[in-house]
Amino acid sequence: MIEKLKRAENKKLFSNLISLSFLHAVNLLLPLVTFPYLVRTLGIEIYGLVIFAQAFISYFSVIAEYGFNFSGTREISLTKNNIEELTTTYNSIMTARFVLVILCLIIMAAVVFSFEKFSIHWELYFFTFGSVIGTFLFPTWFFQGMEKMKYITILSVISKVIFTISIFVFVKSPNDYLLVPLLNSGGSIFVGIISMILINKTFKVPFKIQNYKNVWRHVQEGYYIFISTISTSFYTTTTTVVLGLVTNTMMVGYYAIAEKALRIIVAMFSPFTQTLYPHIIQLVRKSSEETVVFLQRILNFTIFISIFIWIIGVIFAEPIFHLLFSQNVNHSIVIFRILSPLIVILPIASILFNIVLLPFKMDKYFSRIYMTGAILNLLVLGILLFGFKLSTTGAAISLLICEFTITIYAAIVLQRNNIKVFTFYK
Question: Where are its TM segments located (predicted)?
Fold first, then answer.
């Protein structure tokens, strides 16, 4: 009987992994088409402006998500067999996110119309904000918690395909730059509406505004993760925003090309963490020792693959960049090579944070480590940008230092708590 249950769990895990692997394959391939096209069509400067707007609006995405992508997944995973608790959990989180989206829209509008640097392109920021609404409407955390990744795959692929086709059909010159966020937001909102209908019809969980007590309980549950995600933005998003404020959109464009290329590579590892997260939550409840052994295997595999990809990326960066962007992107190549160790560091960090610290209920450490990274980044970024005048290279070095530091910090925390996921601890 036990063996039968294990086979069923492994089958479900494999099915979820295949679904998310396909989704991330699409997420890798489509940006590889649209990303260079947008750089060539809009030009590096206008592309930098679009990226600056995305970076600014991403602050509001973090606030609206409030860490529910992790705490919500965990709560749904634990209540999925009780329809009453599941409905309450889903609606409490959705109500909280709805209130946060409205609050974010008000704050965003106030900022945009208060400063000329923003108000001159106010349409760009409002169109970009549509992605925040789309994220609210598409509760990825619900499907992850239910371990129904095929729904995430189908809906996300639909959204990406709509956006990709629309980009090539409608964006023909730099004057069409407003269509980029408009099309992206439109596809995201459309798929979000479909997902809510699907949850209502398939899982029998309709959306209903919840009372303050239920909402507040889930807000408290996600507090530490929210603090950590806000902190994360201070050494990822803030880097792009600060570059845009102290330099110009051309520099933002060069930096964005390098960082986006790196993020696309690192995204190849996301199916593992997204698939394993709800599985690890269940596994921890059964046996901590068995969980650690399982995590050791995953980590060893990740380290081996990421080092191999890193080497390939560094060797072939120059010809690939020139082939894709057909512009003078030598500066972006330099930035990419500075950032390239993150191809190894980020997948390791994702495992340590997302599928070790959180399932083991170490939310406080999760938050504390990211806050340390945020403070460190602001200090290092300030020194390199204003002290040494390094601009884009300084931003890249700062990001690398911070990611490496918090990854080491997380490893030390786990070691001290006797969670030895690195086999060389033995």
Answer: 12-34, 46-68, 89-112, 124-144, 151-171, 177-199, 223-246, 252-277, 298-321, 333-357, 369-388, 394-414
Distance separating alpha carbons of residues 343 and 51, to the nearest angstrom: 21
Q: Helix 249-266 to helix 391-416 angle, to the nearest 10 degrees?
A: 40
Tokens of 114: 């208060």
State mean pLDDT over 34-50.
Answer: 93
Where does residue 82 fall: left (phi above 0), alpha (psi -120 to 50 degrees), or beta otherwise? beta
Long-range contacts of 302-311 (CB under 8 A, 24+ apart): 302/269, 302/272, 302/347, 302/348, 302/351, 303/344, 303/348, 305/269, 306/269, 306/343, 306/344, 306/347, 306/348, 307/344, 309/265, 309/268, 309/343, 310/340, 310/341, 310/343, 310/344
**From the CB of residue 120, how many other CB atoms can be counted at a distance below 10 Å?**
9
Whether the Cβ atoms of residue 66 and residue 97 lie closer than 8 Å to each other = yes
pLDDT in tens, 363-408: 788 878 888 888 898 899 999 998 888 889 999 999 999 999 999 9
Instruction: Output the CA torsion 143→148→152→157 (10° steps).
Output: -170
The pair of structure tokens assigned to 333 is 């190549």
For residues 191 and 170, what is the distance between their CA atoms, to the nearest angstrom?
A: 20
The per-residue pLDDT for 5 is: 44
Segments making up each domain of the chain, as ranges: 22-221, 231-426
**Tokens encoding 301:** 């595999």
Distance CA 155, CA 190 (A): 10
Cβ neighbours around 145 below 10 Å, total: 24
Residue 138 has φ and ψ, to the nearest 5°, of: -105, 90
Residue 424, token pair as written in the block: 């060389």
Residues 6+ apart with CB under 8 A from 53: 121, 124, 125, 128, 181
